[in-house]
């Protein structure tokens, strides 16, 4: 529906609802955008804010590629409307590195070879950041279960698990 | 997705006022099912009323020794709340068996009840579906029906309600509190969802202009003898082929009371009062559990691709009751079934 012309001469056409001003705090920066109500957070990040690190996989909440952190909790940006996230603190894959240093999970995914094509990786890493912050996964079975919302069609699961375990063990020492 | 406009509700009264004014409006909270269905043009509200600002996100003790869970409490917060894990572990376990951590962070307690009863044909607008387009026929009955119902279905609809949480709520005799233009009322969770009959387009007994405000758990907790056993095509992040919520009270080696509800088998969570009655006073052994399973499934009728579910359900019921009796509930992270 986006990109559809706003003015139409056809009398039966309903006029589009107005764009709404939305303030999104993305990776520590306040971004003000004007959006139609149906723009998902995923589309707003990618199309309006040029943050294309967050990936559109299935667009139906089944693959986890669009995972971002909102107020520290991992969520699926494809199944939420951006207008409903006015004022929220959003962290995407672009916001994880600090002062030019990769986030420990980003480094661990490289060190452990945690991806092949890389399309699911931003979602995997954001999900793993959420997982570690939640602090509920202690064993590898628990990590597997609590990462099951992120699908990797290259099948890098053992290496993704190794990367997350490496960071969790590093965090303990 | 069709065009829609968006408004926010300030409180319950405001939400009710707004839904009354606009016939094609819907409430939105977590949106995990609604937005998905809107993308497929299955749901086509012309206005969304955002209720996430309503003050319904706390869990309170009730005067009768139970808990009242605000409708907006996220599924993940509910599953990990200490009062739930200690006193109602069956509910915690069922929630953690469903969806993914991301979805559980988004989805609300009330919204979990209001996710649509559905099947592949409900989602596919190119096919017939009486639930999506009343009178158009049922594509599933003669089609791909592996995930569909074996109990309580009608000629018009064989879809199942996919929630795990609601199966536990049904077993625990939870009560759904709702507000509406005529005032507040309470609906037993077992009466909240409905069977399809010849009006499968209606999933629940909640009126269009009503809103869920809370879910109440009564004081009977089943903290020891319980299990939520979910059988599915992959070990995580998949809907149940069959799931079983089992809870027992065992005194002096005999079953004093029991609760049994099934998921993935019917248009609503399938509570089994006759089977529960049959267990009363019996020794908690395999013989009694098989008999209870037989009672539940005597009326089960499957379709071309899902007849296996009847035997699967029989075995799952027995196993879940055995796990409950032994005090060794099914783990939701280690998926080996013991």
What does the secondary structure layout of this molecule look like, with pairings?
The complex is a heterodimer of chains A (173) and B (338).
Chain A: E1 20-26, E2 29-35, H1 41-48, E3 67-70, E4 73-76, E5 89-91, H2 104-111, H3 121-134, H4 140-146, H5 157-172
Parallel strand pairs in A: 1-5
Antiparallel strand pairs in A: 1-2, 3-4, 3-5
Helix pairs in contact in A: 2-5
Chain B: E1 5-8, H1 12-21, E2 25-28, H2 34-39, E3 47-50, E4 59-61, E5 67-70, H3 75-80, H4 82-87, H5 89-97, H6 101-106, H7 109-114, H8 120-123, H9 165-171, E6 175-180, E7 183-188, H10 189-192, E8 211-217, E9 226-231, E10 242-251, E11 254-263, E12 270-271, H11 273-279, H12 286-297, H13 308-326
Parallel strand pairs in B: 1-3, 2-3
Antiparallel strand pairs in B: 4-5, 5-8, 6-7, 6-8, 9-10, 10-11, 11-12
Helix pairs in contact in B: 5-9, 11-12, 12-13
Characterization of this structure:
- The complex is a heterodimer of chains A (173) and B (338).
- Chain A is of the alpha+beta class.
- In chain A, 31% of the residues lie in helices and 14% in strands.
- Chain A has helices at residues 41-48, 104-111, 121-134, 140-146, 157-172, and strands at 20-26, 29-35, 67-70, 73-76, 89-91.
- In chain A, strands 2-1-5-3-4 form a 5-stranded mixed sheet, sandwiched between helices.
- Chain A starts with 19 loop residues before the first strand and ends with a helix.
- Among the domains of chain B are: 1-53, Uridine Diphospho-n-acetylenolpyruvylglucosamine Reductase, domain 2 (2-Layer Sandwich); 226-326, 2-Layer Sandwich (Enolase-like, domain 1).
- Chain B has 338 residues and is α+β, with helices and mostly antiparallel strands.
- Chain B starts with a strand and ends in a 12-residue tail after the last helix.
- In chain B, the strands form 3 sheets. Chain B has a 5-stranded antiparallel sheet. In chain B, strands 9-10-11-12 form a 4-stranded antiparallel sheet, with helices on both faces. Chain B has a 3-stranded parallel sheet with strand order 1-3-2, with helices on one face.
- Chain B is globular, with a radius of gyration of 19 Å.
- Classes of the chains: A alpha+beta (173), B alpha+beta (338).
- At the A-B interface, strand 4, helix 3 and helix 4 of A face helix 2 and helix 6 of B.
């Amino acid at each position: 529906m986006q990109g559809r012309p706003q003015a139409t001469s056809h009398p039966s056409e309903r006029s589009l609802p107005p764009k709404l001003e939305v303030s999104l705090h993305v990776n520590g920066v306040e971004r003000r955008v004007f959006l139609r109500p149906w723009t998902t957070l995923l589309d707003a990040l990618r199309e309006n804010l040029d943050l294309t690190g967050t990936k559109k996989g299935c667009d139906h909440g089944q693959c986890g590629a669009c995972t971002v952190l909102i107020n520290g909790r991992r969520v699926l940006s494809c199944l939420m409307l951006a207008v409903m996230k006015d004022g929220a603190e959003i962290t995407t894959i672009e916001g994880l590195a600090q002062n030019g240093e990769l986030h420990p999970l980003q480094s661990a995914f490289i060190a452990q070879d945690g991806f092949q094509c890389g399309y699911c990786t931003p979602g995997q890493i954001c999900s793993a950041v959420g997982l570690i912050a939640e602090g509920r996964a202690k064993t590898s079975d628990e990590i597997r279960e609590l990462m099951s919302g992120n699908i990797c069609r290259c099948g890098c699961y053992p290496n993704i698990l190794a990367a997350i375990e490496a960071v969790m063990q590093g965090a303990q020492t | 997705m069709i065009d829609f406009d968006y408004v926010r509700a300030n409180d319950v009264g405001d939400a009710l006022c707004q839904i009354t004014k606009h016939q094609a409006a819907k409430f939105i909270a977590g949106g995990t099912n609604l937005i998905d269905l809107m993308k497929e043009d299955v749901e086509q509200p012309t206005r969304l009323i955002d209720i996430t600002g309503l003050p319904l996100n706390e869990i309170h003790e009730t005067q009768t020794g139970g808990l009242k869970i605000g409708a907006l409490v996220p599924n993940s917060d509910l599953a990990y709340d200490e009062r739930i894990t200690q006193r109602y572990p069956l509910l915690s376990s069922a929630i953690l068996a469903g969806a993914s951590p991301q979805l559980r962070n988004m989805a609300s307690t009330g919204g979990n009840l209001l996710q649509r009863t559905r099947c592949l044909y409900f989602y596919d607008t190119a096919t017939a579906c009486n639930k999506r387009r009343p009178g158009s026929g049922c594509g599933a009955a003669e089609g791909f029906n592996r995930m569909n119902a074996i109990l309580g279905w009608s000629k018009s609809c064989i879809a199942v309600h996919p929630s795990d949480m609601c199966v536990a709520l049904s077993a625990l005799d939870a009560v759904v509190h709702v507000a509406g233009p005529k005032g507040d009322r309470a609906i037993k969770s077992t009466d909240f969802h409905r069977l399809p009959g010849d009006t499968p387009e209606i999933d629940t007994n909640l009126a269009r202009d009503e809103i869920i405000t809370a879910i109440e758990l009564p004081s009977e907790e089943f903290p020891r003898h319980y299990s939520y056993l979910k059988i599915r095509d992959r070990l995580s992040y998949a809907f149940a082929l069959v799931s079983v919520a089992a809870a027992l009270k065992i005194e002096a080696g005999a079953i004093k009371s029991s609760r049994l509800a099934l998921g993935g088998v019917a248009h609503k969570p399938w509570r089994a009062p006759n089977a529960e009655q049959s267990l009363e006073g019996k020794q908690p052994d395999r013989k009694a559990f098989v008999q209870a399973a037989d009672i539940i499934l005597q009326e089960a009728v499957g379709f071309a691709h899902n007849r296996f579910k009847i035997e699967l359900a029989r075995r799952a019921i027995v196993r879940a009751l055995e796990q409950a009796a032994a005090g060794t509930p099914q783990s939701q992270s280690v998926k080996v079934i013991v």
